[in-house]
Amino acid sequence: MSPSDSISTPARLTTNATVKLPRLFLFGVGLIYILAGLFFRDPWKTDDVVGLATMLTAVKEGGQALLLPQIGVLAHAQDGPLVTWVGAFFIWLLSPFFELFVSPLDAAIIASRLPNLLWFGLLTASVWYGSYLLGRRPEAQPLALPFGGEPTPSAYGRMIADAALLLLVATAGIIWRMHETSEVPALIAFQALAFYSVARMLDRPASGAVTLGLALAAAFLARGWIGSLPIMLATLLIFMPGGILWPRKKWLLLTAALTTILILCWWIPARNASEYWTMNWLLWNTTAFGWPVYKEVLTALRDLPWFLWPTWPLAILAIWRWRSWLTAPHIWLPLMFALWPLVALLFLADSFEPEYSLLAVPCAILAAFSLPTLRRGIVNSLDWFAVMCFSLTSATVWLGWIALQTGWPEQISHNIARQTRGYDVFISWPAVFVAILGTLAWAALVRWRLISKPAGLWRGTVLSAGGLIVTWLLLVTLWMPALDYVRSYRTVSGHLAAALKLHKQPGECVRTQGLGTGQRASFLVFDDIDFTYSSECTLVLQQTSPQDLAAGTAAYSGTGTVLWMGQREPERYEVFRLLRLGKQ
């Protein structure tokens, strides 16, 4: 419904509530968010190390491996090539420089993660400017006060944009994914760019149509139809007949043409290069969709509340409070970008965090528009909830670390020891120093809230974003060595490489049995171990479980010679065996 005199806007706000948040603070929050946990760690399974493996293969092999992502000789016919292209370029360009200071492998790991800075910059800029454009529109403005004092459109739009950005940073589920060398950070960034582009088309349709075409094509090249279809459907529904963007529908022809051309620029050479790869890629895309499955839907409904915390309750509240204004751009645009990823979840056979991630941006934007509709008492309650919640999470991280180091409290120490079996406990004092600084910064932020009692409506989002970032900082400083030990395959890969060097005869090849994609990628990344598919290979690397070995149900039980057997010590369900079999 369009704004009218008969419908009162639910937003109530004074000028004091839109006081400008310091830009330096906003920049610092973003910088700490993306840098903490991005470097100084191994790639972990599965998406993180798989993305790096395709980049390294592209750099090493070039040609078809650059056009069509591969993990060594394995055709990785999933997602798309864009993230591989960008990562391979950064590795090729910057690895020689980093090799002056670290090993070639660590240099490649560092270079491969630099694109995450690009994706995060694109994400934050798109969310901020898109929210600002919508927030300053007349439909979104708060109710005019009888004696004046309401904020100007630009000040109101800036406050909404700041809140949207901080709420996005405060979203719990995406923080780890934003630090992966996978397609997820890029896909979220391209969705945000599509949102900005549609918002831009309200006043500059030509430039908005061009950036929208780039965003849709990039989303497709990042994650195929699984990632791009919800964004494309949202875009189409935004231009509904009778809506405010309907008069600009002709510009969608430019968007469609640009998107199609860019996609075909990859698809045609890809099809000519390998029909096998492209057919498997199409199969991966088409088999991902199906009729809703009861258990899958329940799983998604169980996972989404924690993944989208704390934005989803505020997003629902925004829809309710602005229910008479649903077709106004500031609600309709983010609502469509939230609705269609949610619908897609129902029809995906195996949805998980990469699919959940498409809900983070629109929920944060909707949540920002709920803030001006809240009573002051409710806003203050949310502030205190953020203080209590993140003070508790920070204290929990410290308590767990103390238990890891000292053995007290005993029950917590026992539970941690079960998950980190074989880990040699040590203290990294520089990391502890950074963790202490982060804790003190959180205490200073809480004190600022208590003492200064800021009037800015963004104060609660500052607490939420700051609290999550401090918790994340504590995890990636205090716990990074233990996490690396639990989730990295560097050690077991080194043991396998030594076994192959000892037992592999000249001209002998190695094939696999039951080896997962993440494990294959890890062995390729850490020790350049690749495998073939020839049935003539007499050496076999098998991945199985201790339970199957004990029961005698593992493949090759009782046949062949076991040359080596190994596993990651904290892993209870996974073991590797190097076997030599007779001629097949």
Helical element count?
A: 24
- In whole angstroms, the N-to-C terminal distance is 72 Å
Mean pLDDT over all positions: 94
Task: Give the helix level as a range of percent.
Answer: 55-70%
Query: What is the overall shape?
Result: globular
**Order of helical and strand elements:** HHHEEHHHHHHHHHHHHHHHHHHHEHEHEE
Q: Catalogue the unreliable spans.
A: 1-6
- Share of β-strand residues: under 5%
**Secondary structure category:** mainly alpha
How many domains?
A: 3
DSSP strand tally: 6
Roughly how many Å is the radius of gyration?
26 Å
Biggest sheet strand line-up: 3-4-6-5
The major beta sheet can be summarized as: 4 strands, mixed
Indicate the topology.
Elements: H1 23-35, H2 47-61, H3 64-67, E1 70-71, E2 74-75, H4 82-98, H5 104-113, H6 115-135, H7 153-169, H8 184-200, H9 205-238, H10 251-273, H11 275-287, H12 294-307, H13 311-321, H14 329-346, H15 353-356, H16 360-370, H17 376-406, H18 410-419, H19 429-452, H20 459-478, H21 480-487, H22 490-503, E3 510-513, H23 517-527, E4 539-544, H24 546-551, E5 561-566, E6 575-580
Walk me through what this model shows.
This protein has 584 residues and is mostly helical. The protein has three domains: 114-373, no CATH class; 377-487, no CATH class; 490-580, no CATH class. Helices cover 63% and strands 4% of the residues. It is built from 24 helices and six strands. The protein has helices at residues 23-35, 47-61, 64-67, 82-98, 104-113, 115-135, 153-169, 184-200, 205-238, 251-273, 275-287, 294-307, 311-321, 329-346, 353-356, 360-370, 376-406, 410-419, 429-452, 459-478, 480-487, 490-503, 517-527, 546-551, and strands spanning 70-71, 74-75, 510-513, 539-544, 561-566, 575-580. Strands 3-4-6-5 form a four-stranded mixed β-sheet. Strands 1-2 form a two-stranded antiparallel sheet. Helix 23 links the parallel strand 3 and strand 4 (539-544). Helix 7 packs across helix 16, helix 9 crosses helix 14 (329-346) and helix 22 crosses helix 23.
